[in-house]
Amino acid sequence: MTAHTIDVDAAVVEDHVMRLARHGAWGETGVWRTVYSPEWVAAQDEVAEWFDAAGFEVWRDAVGNVWGRIEGADGSPGSIATGSHIDSQTPGGRYDGALGVISGYLAVKSLVEQHGRPQRTLEVVSMCEEESSRFAATNFWGSRGIAGMIKPHEPDELISYDGQRMSDIMRELGLDPARIPEAKRDDINAWVELHIEQGPLLETAGRPVAVVDAITGIRHYEVTITGRSDHAGARPIDDRRDPMHGAAEIISRVIDTALEMGRPAVTTVGRMQVDPNFPAIVPRSVTFTIDARHPDPDARNALYRRHEATLEEVCTRRGLDLSVKINTDHPPCLSNPDLVRTFQEAARAEDIPFETMPSGAAHDTQRIVNVAPVVMLFVQSKDGRSHTPEEYSYPEHMAEGVRLLAAGLHRLAY
Ligand SMILES: [Zn+2]
Fold this sequence. Notes:
Blueprint: H1 10-21, E1 25-26, E2 30-31, H2 38-53, E3 57-60, E4 66-70, E5 79-85, H3 98-115, E6 121-127, H4 141-147, H5 154-157, H6 166-172, E7 188-196, H7 201-205, E8 209-215, E9 217-226, E10 230-231, H8 243-261, E11 266-268, E12 272-275, E13 281-282, E14 285-294, H9 297-318, E15 321-330, E16 333-334, H10 337-350, E17 354-359, H11 365-368, E18 374-379, H12 395-413
Parallel strand pairs: 5-6, 5-7, 7-18, 8-17
Antiparallel strand pairs: 1-2, 3-4, 4-6, 8-16, 8-18, 9-14, 9-15, 10-13, 11-14, 12-14
Helix pairs in contact: 1-3, 1-12, 3-12, 8-9, 10-12
The structure holds zinc ion.
């Protein structure tokens, strides 16, 4: 008989998911809750009420993150913090982000109820924004605030999709953009974010949860291949400098490279522009993106070297001009090995079946890692679906996630 650190009622977890999902409810099961919208305000207010009712000390920082705090008994500096984001895709589901806020709240509340005051300070945060759903370039607004990574000019330069300025929107809610630097934290001793997996691996493995040992590194190449535009009928097929033919070979080969390297390498060509873009013209140039990701720093570099060699080789052989821009380049975010071990051991002690795996998706945690040691936990996503109202996690899996989160926090703070 395994002694559970806390008891969690799966129905209570699901009830909290449904309560948050009312704010910005979209269609049958969706949520549409962009940062600083009325729905967002209502959701953050409800979270603040939960924190307050549970006896947490509640405060809001300069970007609108809502924090709840239980002061540790030993008076040591810093805190153990957990949380996730409250905003959604447009539309998104009920679980992305929200489950991490709810789990943090329920884990800390249950710990205090069932084990009393912690030795070390525990904090739960409902972060304001992660998804870039209202502004193209805000992503990680909440966690960048915490990590001190928002540049002073950003609030005045960021314009929402409906034409409003970030600084004006913030002021309307009583948030002073000039005070954003005050949101920075340098006293978080350990950070853990629980999130839905958003992919199919846990379901395939038949496990409810995972300990995340890395968030994948990502690079976006923008590739332009230029050849010569010609008549599609009059120019013989063996006398062309056709950038489309070169692009087709490159696209096929870079995707094959990721397939050869195998999981968790991924390479995606998701956007293409052809100029001219007509059926009867050999194009002059083809521009496309290559999104390539790997969580292991060395394997990631190997993947990129192979992609770059393919670009060079194909274009040289075909007499095509090549231009490559790197638009995004984020190194992998590695979880702290001690924190990974703490949560693995907690899962074993609690008899919770788990995987240890990297995250292929981006998360707030990869900003928080700039100011604290981090780890993440995943809860299984049904059919691997996310960023859609179809998103679903089973209540019993969510409850296992809350139990694991609480058991790890117990090891860290009690
Ligand atoms: Zn998320």
